[in-house]
Write a structure and sequence with these properties.
single chain, alpha/beta, Aspartate Aminotransferase, domain 1, 2 domains, 4-stranded antiparallel β-sheet, 12 helices, binds pyridoxal-5'-phosphate
Amino acid sequence: MTHPLLDLPPLTAEHFASIERKVADLLHTRQDVVITQGEALLPLEGCVRAGSRPGSTALNVVTGPYGNTFGNWLRDCGAEVVDLAVPFDTAVTAEQVAGALEEHPEIDFVSLVHAEAATGNTNPVAEIGEAVRAHGALFMLDAVASVAAEPLLPDAWGVDLCVIGAQKAMGGPAGVSAVSVSQRAWERFAENPAAPRRSYLSLLDWKERWIDGGRTALLHAPAQLEMLALEACLDRIAAEGLPAVTARHAAAAAATRAGAAALGVSPYVARAAEAAPVATTLRVADASPVAAKALAADPSAPLAAGGGALAGEMLRVNHYGPVASREAVRAALAALAAALSRDPAEALAAADEAWAQSPAG
Ligand SMILES: *Cc1c(COP(=O)(O)O)cnc(C)c1O
Protein backbone atom coordinates (compact mmCIF):
# COMPACT_ATOMS: atom_id res chain seq x y z
CA MET A 1 0.00 0.00 0.00
CA THR A 2 1.45 3.38 -0.93
CA HIS A 3 1.74 5.99 1.77
CA PRO A 4 0.50 9.47 0.73
CA LEU A 5 3.43 11.28 2.35
CA LEU A 6 6.23 8.76 1.88
CA ASP A 7 5.82 7.16 -1.49
CA LEU A 8 5.91 10.28 -3.62
CA PRO A 9 7.62 10.28 -7.02
CA PRO A 10 10.61 12.65 -7.27
CA LEU A 11 9.63 16.21 -8.12
CA THR A 12 10.78 16.94 -11.66
CA ALA A 13 12.79 19.98 -12.73
CA GLU A 14 9.84 21.03 -14.85
CA HIS A 15 7.49 20.89 -11.89
CA PHE A 16 9.98 22.78 -9.72
CA ALA A 17 10.26 25.49 -12.39
CA SER A 18 6.49 25.77 -12.65
CA ILE A 19 6.25 26.41 -8.88
CA GLU A 20 8.92 29.10 -9.26
CA ARG A 21 6.75 30.77 -11.90
CA LYS A 22 3.79 30.74 -9.52
CA VAL A 23 5.91 32.49 -6.89
CA ALA A 24 6.95 35.05 -9.52
CA ASP A 25 3.27 35.64 -10.34
CA LEU A 26 2.44 36.13 -6.67
CA LEU A 27 5.18 38.78 -6.45
CA HIS A 28 4.27 40.37 -9.80
CA THR A 29 7.94 40.10 -10.63
CA ARG A 30 9.79 39.60 -13.89
CA GLN A 31 13.05 38.97 -12.04
CA ASP A 32 14.49 35.54 -11.44
CA VAL A 33 12.93 33.69 -8.53
CA VAL A 34 14.96 31.16 -6.54
CA ILE A 35 13.09 28.79 -4.26
CA THR A 36 15.20 27.87 -1.26
CA GLN A 37 14.80 24.70 0.71
CA GLY A 38 14.82 26.01 4.24
CA GLU A 39 13.29 28.67 6.41
CA ALA A 40 13.41 32.28 5.20
CA LEU A 41 16.55 33.03 7.21
CA LEU A 42 18.41 30.89 4.62
CA PRO A 43 17.88 33.19 1.60
CA LEU A 44 18.14 36.27 3.83
CA GLU A 45 21.59 35.19 4.99
CA GLY A 46 22.49 34.17 1.43
CA CYS A 47 21.57 37.66 0.18
CA VAL A 48 23.54 39.44 2.90
CA ARG A 49 26.65 37.28 2.43
CA ALA A 50 26.60 37.69 -1.37
CA GLY A 51 25.64 41.37 -1.38
CA SER A 52 28.15 42.66 1.16
CA ARG A 53 31.92 42.30 1.69
CA PRO A 54 34.84 44.04 3.36
CA GLY A 55 34.89 47.56 1.94
CA SER A 56 31.17 47.78 1.43
CA THR A 57 28.87 49.91 3.58
CA ALA A 58 25.37 48.84 4.47
CA LEU A 59 22.42 50.78 5.77
CA ASN A 60 20.60 48.39 8.09
CA VAL A 61 17.13 49.63 9.03
CA VAL A 62 16.08 48.23 12.39
CA THR A 63 12.34 48.33 13.04
CA GLY A 64 12.08 45.02 14.91
CA PRO A 65 14.10 42.02 16.06
CA TYR A 66 15.17 40.77 12.61
CA GLY A 67 17.09 43.98 11.87
CA ASN A 68 19.60 43.09 14.57
CA THR A 69 20.18 39.69 12.98
CA PHE A 70 20.87 41.27 9.57
CA GLY A 71 23.24 43.79 11.17
CA ASN A 72 25.23 40.98 12.78
CA TRP A 73 25.56 39.11 9.48
CA LEU A 74 26.62 42.29 7.69
CA ARG A 75 29.32 42.99 10.29
CA ASP A 76 30.41 39.36 10.08
CA CYS A 77 30.95 39.86 6.33
CA GLY A 78 33.31 42.74 7.08
CA ALA A 79 30.94 45.47 5.90
CA GLU A 80 30.69 48.84 7.60
CA VAL A 81 27.18 49.00 9.03
CA VAL A 82 25.11 52.12 9.53
CA ASP A 83 22.19 51.14 11.77
CA LEU A 84 19.04 53.22 11.45
CA ALA A 85 16.86 52.14 14.35
CA VAL A 86 13.39 53.42 15.16
CA PRO A 87 11.12 52.50 18.08
CA PHE A 88 9.46 49.15 17.38
CA ASP A 89 5.96 50.64 17.78
CA THR A 90 6.42 52.94 14.77
CA ALA A 91 7.55 52.75 11.14
CA VAL A 92 10.69 54.18 9.57
CA THR A 93 10.02 57.03 7.13
CA ALA A 94 11.43 57.50 3.63
CA GLU A 95 12.86 60.83 4.86
CA GLN A 96 14.84 59.07 7.57
CA VAL A 97 16.23 56.59 5.04
CA ALA A 98 17.02 59.36 2.54
CA GLY A 99 18.74 61.31 5.32
CA ALA A 100 20.95 58.34 6.24
CA LEU A 101 21.86 57.77 2.59
CA GLU A 102 22.75 61.44 2.18
CA GLU A 103 24.90 61.39 5.29
CA HIS A 104 26.75 58.25 4.12
CA PRO A 105 27.12 58.42 0.32
CA GLU A 106 29.28 55.26 0.45
CA ILE A 107 26.27 53.07 1.33
CA ASP A 108 25.90 50.34 -1.33
CA PHE A 109 23.48 47.93 0.38
CA VAL A 110 20.22 48.57 2.22
CA SER A 111 18.40 45.97 4.32
CA LEU A 112 14.82 46.53 5.44
CA VAL A 113 12.04 44.44 6.93
CA HIS A 114 8.69 45.23 5.29
CA ALA A 115 6.29 44.10 8.02
CA GLU A 116 7.26 42.83 11.44
CA ALA A 117 5.10 39.97 12.72
CA ALA A 118 6.80 40.18 16.13
CA THR A 119 6.05 43.85 16.76
CA GLY A 120 3.14 44.50 14.39
CA ASN A 121 4.52 47.45 12.44
CA THR A 122 4.91 47.89 8.68
CA ASN A 123 7.16 50.20 6.69
CA PRO A 124 6.39 52.34 3.59
CA VAL A 125 8.52 50.37 1.13
CA ALA A 126 7.34 52.15 -2.03
CA GLU A 127 8.65 55.53 -0.83
CA ILE A 128 11.76 54.06 0.76
CA GLY A 129 12.48 52.25 -2.49
CA GLU A 130 12.46 55.56 -4.36
CA ALA A 131 15.10 56.96 -2.04
CA VAL A 132 17.24 53.82 -2.31
CA ARG A 133 16.97 53.74 -6.10
CA ALA A 134 17.95 57.43 -6.37
CA HIS A 135 21.04 56.59 -4.31
CA GLY A 136 21.86 53.45 -6.30
CA ALA A 137 22.34 50.97 -3.44
CA LEU A 138 21.26 47.34 -3.64
CA PHE A 139 17.94 46.95 -1.82
CA MET A 140 17.10 43.81 0.19
CA LEU A 141 13.60 43.43 1.61
CA ASP A 142 12.43 40.87 4.15
CA ALA A 143 8.83 40.43 3.05
CA VAL A 144 8.15 37.24 5.04
CA ALA A 145 5.42 38.86 7.12
CA SER A 146 3.96 41.09 4.39
CA VAL A 147 3.57 38.73 1.44
CA ALA A 148 -0.14 37.97 0.93
CA ALA A 149 -1.06 40.19 3.89
CA GLU A 150 -0.56 43.54 2.16
CA PRO A 151 0.46 44.86 -1.27
CA LEU A 152 3.98 43.75 -2.21
CA LEU A 153 5.40 44.98 -5.53
CA PRO A 154 9.16 44.39 -5.55
CA ASP A 155 9.70 45.38 -9.20
CA ALA A 156 7.66 48.59 -9.00
CA TRP A 157 9.37 49.50 -5.74
CA GLY A 158 12.92 48.88 -6.94
CA VAL A 159 13.57 45.95 -4.61
CA ASP A 160 16.60 43.96 -5.79
CA LEU A 161 16.19 41.08 -3.36
CA CYS A 162 12.73 40.24 -2.07
CA VAL A 163 12.63 37.36 0.40
CA ILE A 164 9.41 35.57 1.30
CA GLY A 165 8.39 32.60 3.39
CA ALA A 166 5.19 30.61 3.01
CA GLN A 167 4.22 30.09 6.64
CA LYS A 168 2.65 33.43 7.56
CA ALA A 169 -0.07 35.14 5.50
CA MET A 170 0.35 32.69 2.61
CA GLY A 171 -0.98 30.00 4.92
CA GLY A 172 1.62 27.59 3.60
CA PRO A 173 4.37 25.34 4.94
CA ALA A 174 7.27 26.38 7.13
CA GLY A 175 10.61 25.22 5.83
CA VAL A 176 10.50 26.58 2.30
CA SER A 177 11.20 30.13 1.17
CA ALA A 178 11.98 32.12 -1.96
CA VAL A 179 13.78 35.22 -3.17
CA SER A 180 13.45 37.34 -6.29
CA VAL A 181 16.82 38.52 -7.58
CA SER A 182 17.33 41.49 -9.92
CA GLN A 183 19.91 41.54 -12.70
CA ARG A 184 21.81 44.19 -10.74
CA ALA A 185 21.92 41.92 -7.71
CA TRP A 186 23.23 38.98 -9.78
CA GLU A 187 26.00 41.25 -11.11
CA ARG A 188 26.95 42.43 -7.62
CA PHE A 189 27.00 38.85 -6.33
CA ALA A 190 29.12 37.65 -9.25
CA GLU A 191 31.81 40.28 -8.72
CA ASN A 192 32.01 39.59 -4.97
CA PRO A 193 34.84 37.13 -4.27
CA ALA A 194 33.43 36.58 -0.78
CA ALA A 195 29.95 35.58 -2.04
CA PRO A 196 29.11 31.99 -1.01
CA ARG A 197 29.82 29.46 -3.76
CA ARG A 198 29.37 25.70 -3.67
CA SER A 199 27.50 26.30 -0.43
CA TYR A 200 23.96 25.82 0.80
CA LEU A 201 23.89 29.63 1.26
CA SER A 202 24.86 30.22 -2.37
CA LEU A 203 22.31 31.90 -4.59
CA LEU A 204 24.99 32.13 -7.31
CA ASP A 205 25.05 28.33 -7.53
CA TRP A 206 21.36 28.48 -8.49
CA LYS A 207 22.05 31.20 -11.04
CA GLU A 208 24.93 29.38 -12.69
CA ARG A 209 23.76 25.80 -12.50
CA TRP A 210 19.96 26.07 -12.58
CA ILE A 211 18.87 29.35 -14.20
CA ASP A 212 21.67 29.76 -16.76
CA GLY A 213 21.41 26.07 -17.54
CA GLY A 214 17.83 26.57 -18.71
CA ARG A 215 16.23 25.21 -15.51
CA THR A 216 16.75 21.60 -16.51
CA ALA A 217 19.04 20.26 -13.78
CA LEU A 218 18.27 20.77 -10.10
CA LEU A 219 21.09 21.28 -7.62
CA HIS A 220 19.73 18.73 -5.21
CA ALA A 221 16.72 16.48 -4.75
CA PRO A 222 13.78 18.78 -4.06
CA ALA A 223 11.93 18.37 -0.76
CA GLN A 224 8.70 17.05 -2.25
CA LEU A 225 6.48 17.65 0.77
CA GLU A 226 7.46 21.28 1.14
CA MET A 227 7.35 21.94 -2.59
CA LEU A 228 3.92 20.35 -3.01
CA ALA A 229 2.63 22.23 0.02
CA LEU A 230 4.06 25.47 -1.37
CA GLU A 231 2.32 24.82 -4.67
CA ALA A 232 -0.95 24.03 -2.87
CA CYS A 233 -0.86 27.29 -0.93
CA LEU A 234 -0.04 29.28 -4.09
CA ASP A 235 -2.97 27.62 -5.86
CA ARG A 236 -5.25 28.33 -2.90
CA ILE A 237 -4.25 32.02 -2.94
CA ALA A 238 -4.79 32.18 -6.70
CA ALA A 239 -8.23 30.59 -6.34
CA GLU A 240 -9.32 33.10 -3.71
CA GLY A 241 -7.56 35.95 -5.51
CA LEU A 242 -4.60 37.80 -3.98
CA PRO A 243 -6.60 41.05 -3.52
CA ALA A 244 -9.22 39.12 -1.54
CA VAL A 245 -6.52 37.53 0.62
CA THR A 246 -4.90 40.87 1.44
CA ALA A 247 -8.35 42.42 2.05
CA ARG A 248 -9.07 39.66 4.57
CA HIS A 249 -5.87 40.49 6.44
CA ALA A 250 -6.65 44.22 6.42
CA ALA A 251 -10.14 43.49 7.73
CA ALA A 252 -8.77 41.26 10.49
CA ALA A 253 -6.39 44.01 11.59
CA ALA A 254 -9.09 46.69 11.56
CA ALA A 255 -11.56 44.45 13.41
CA THR A 256 -8.98 43.49 16.05
CA ARG A 257 -8.05 47.13 16.67
CA ALA A 258 -11.69 48.15 16.94
CA GLY A 259 -12.54 45.28 19.27
CA ALA A 260 -9.52 45.94 21.47
CA ALA A 261 -10.43 49.62 21.69
CA ALA A 262 -13.90 48.65 22.92
CA LEU A 263 -12.18 46.64 25.67
CA GLY A 264 -10.10 49.68 26.58
CA VAL A 265 -6.91 48.04 25.24
CA SER A 266 -4.58 50.29 23.22
CA PRO A 267 -2.81 49.15 20.09
CA TYR A 268 0.98 48.77 20.47
CA VAL A 269 1.43 50.54 17.12
CA ALA A 270 -0.51 53.76 17.70
CA ARG A 271 -0.97 54.81 14.07
CA ALA A 272 -3.18 52.44 12.09
CA ALA A 273 -1.27 53.23 8.88
CA GLU A 274 1.90 51.86 10.52
CA ALA A 275 0.20 48.69 11.79
CA ALA A 276 0.92 45.49 9.86
CA PRO A 277 -2.10 43.57 8.52
CA VAL A 278 -0.37 40.27 9.40
CA ALA A 279 -0.76 40.59 13.18
CA THR A 280 -2.14 43.12 15.65
CA THR A 281 -0.04 43.90 18.69
CA LEU A 282 -1.74 45.29 21.78
CA ARG A 283 -0.37 47.15 24.78
CA VAL A 284 -1.13 44.81 27.66
CA ALA A 285 0.81 44.91 30.94
CA ASP A 286 1.96 41.49 32.20
CA ALA A 287 0.92 39.99 28.87
CA SER A 288 2.18 36.47 29.67
CA PRO A 289 -0.38 35.66 32.40
CA VAL A 290 -3.09 37.48 30.43
CA ALA A 291 -2.33 35.38 27.35
CA ALA A 292 -2.31 32.22 29.47
CA LYS A 293 -5.74 33.09 30.89
CA ALA A 294 -7.09 33.91 27.42
CA LEU A 295 -5.82 30.61 26.05
CA ALA A 296 -7.30 28.75 29.00
CA ALA A 297 -10.65 30.29 28.03
CA ASP A 298 -10.18 29.31 24.37
CA PRO A 299 -7.10 27.26 23.41
CA SER A 300 -7.76 27.89 19.71
CA ALA A 301 -7.68 31.71 19.96
CA PRO A 302 -4.79 32.98 17.76
CA LEU A 303 -3.02 35.06 20.38
CA ALA A 304 0.24 35.01 22.28
CA ALA A 305 2.32 37.21 24.56
CA GLY A 306 5.09 39.19 22.85
CA GLY A 307 8.46 37.47 22.53
CA GLY A 308 11.34 38.10 24.93
CA ALA A 309 11.22 41.40 26.79
CA LEU A 310 8.00 42.33 24.98
CA ALA A 311 6.13 39.67 27.01
CA GLY A 312 5.90 42.24 29.80
CA GLU A 313 4.03 44.81 27.73
CA MET A 314 2.57 43.32 24.57
CA LEU A 315 0.03 40.78 23.44
CA ARG A 316 -0.14 39.71 19.81
CA VAL A 317 -3.15 38.55 17.81
CA ASN A 318 -1.77 36.47 14.94
CA HIS A 319 -4.55 36.83 12.39
CA TYR A 320 -2.69 35.50 9.37
CA GLY A 321 -3.25 32.83 6.77
CA PRO A 322 -6.49 30.90 7.20
CA VAL A 323 -7.13 32.64 10.55
CA ALA A 324 -7.36 36.05 8.92
CA SER A 325 -11.06 35.54 9.44
CA ARG A 326 -13.90 37.23 11.27
CA GLU A 327 -14.41 34.09 13.38
CA ALA A 328 -10.77 33.93 14.51
CA VAL A 329 -10.72 37.63 15.37
CA ARG A 330 -13.93 37.20 17.36
CA ALA A 331 -12.41 34.21 19.15
CA ALA A 332 -9.29 36.21 20.05
CA LEU A 333 -11.34 39.14 21.35
CA ALA A 334 -13.68 36.92 23.35
CA ALA A 335 -10.70 35.13 24.91
CA LEU A 336 -9.03 38.45 25.73
CA ALA A 337 -12.27 39.75 27.27
CA ALA A 338 -12.49 36.60 29.40
CA ALA A 339 -8.89 37.06 30.55
CA LEU A 340 -9.64 40.66 31.51
CA SER A 341 -12.95 39.64 33.17
CA ARG A 342 -14.90 41.82 30.77
CA ASP A 343 -18.14 41.32 28.88
CA PRO A 344 -17.13 40.67 25.25
CA ALA A 345 -20.37 41.96 23.66
CA GLU A 346 -19.22 45.50 22.84
CA ALA A 347 -15.86 44.34 21.52
CA LEU A 348 -17.47 41.75 19.26
CA ALA A 349 -19.97 44.31 17.96
CA ALA A 350 -17.17 46.80 17.27
CA ALA A 351 -15.13 44.12 15.48
CA ASP A 352 -18.10 43.06 13.36
CA GLU A 353 -18.77 46.69 12.46
CA ALA A 354 -15.12 47.29 11.46
CA TRP A 355 -15.09 44.07 9.42
CA ALA A 356 -18.30 45.07 7.62
CA GLN A 357 -16.86 48.52 6.83
CA SER A 358 -13.66 47.06 5.36
CA PRO A 359 -13.26 46.13 1.69
CA ALA A 360 -13.55 42.46 2.72
CA GLY A 361 -16.92 43.06 4.41
C1 LIG B 1 8.66 35.02 10.55
C2 LIG B 1 9.64 35.98 10.01
C3 LIG B 1 10.92 35.60 9.60
C4 LIG B 1 11.46 34.23 9.81
O1 LIG B 1 10.99 33.34 8.92
P1 LIG B 1 11.53 31.83 9.04
O2 LIG B 1 10.98 31.19 7.82
O3 LIG B 1 10.96 31.30 10.31
O4 LIG B 1 13.00 31.90 9.06
C5 LIG B 1 11.76 36.55 9.08
N1 LIG B 1 11.38 37.82 8.96
C6 LIG B 1 10.17 38.24 9.33
C7 LIG B 1 9.81 39.66 9.18
C8 LIG B 1 9.26 37.34 9.88
O5 LIG B 1 8.07 37.77 10.30
